Amino acid sequence: MKIRAFETSDETAVIQLWKECGLTVPWNNPQLDIERKLAVGRDLFLVGIQEDNVIASAMGGYEGHRGWVNYLAVSLEFQKHGCGAQMMAHLESLLIAKGCPKINLQVRSSNLGVIEFYKSLGYKIDDTVSLGKRLTDDSASS
C-alpha cells in the first residue's frame, strides 16, 4: 500500500470507503467534513492506495497542543493485513515532525474490535469524559 496526501479526485472513493466501514452518521455530512479538512491542515489527510484504488484513509489534525485522528478506515477486503497500522504510523510520524506531544482519538464504546486495534498500537484508554456540542446542523445539508 502506498500512502499519500488526499487529492480532490479521491473524494468519491473516500466517502464510499467511510460508508463501507460504517463511519458515516446522519449528523456529519462527509462532503462538508472533507471540505473543512482541506481548508485546515490538508497535509494530515491521508489515503492508502493499492493498484490505483483508495483502500484506506486517515484524517489527522493538530492545533498545537494535541493531535487528533478521525476517519481511520480500511476497506473490509484489506482489514487485518496491517494497513490500519501503516496509516497510523505514517500519521504519527507527520505529527511528531510537527512537534505534537500526544494523539487523542475517539471510538464508539461499543466498537470493541477497534478499541483493541488501537490498544495493540500502544494507545490507552484515558480516564476522561468526551463532551461535544454541535455548532452547525450538517444533517440538513446532506
Automatic annotation (TrEMBL):
GO terms for molecular function: acyltransferase activity, transferring groups other than amino-acyl groups. Pfam families: Acetyltransf_1 (PF00583). InterPro entries: Acyl_CoA_acyltransferase (IPR016181), GNAT_dom (IPR000182). Gene3D superfamilies: 3.40.630.30. CDD domains: NAT_SF. Residues 1-142 form the N-acetyltransferase domain. SUPFAM superfamilies: Acyl-CoA N-acyltransferases (Nat). This is N-acetyltransferase domain-containing protein. It comes from Endozoicomonas numazuensis.
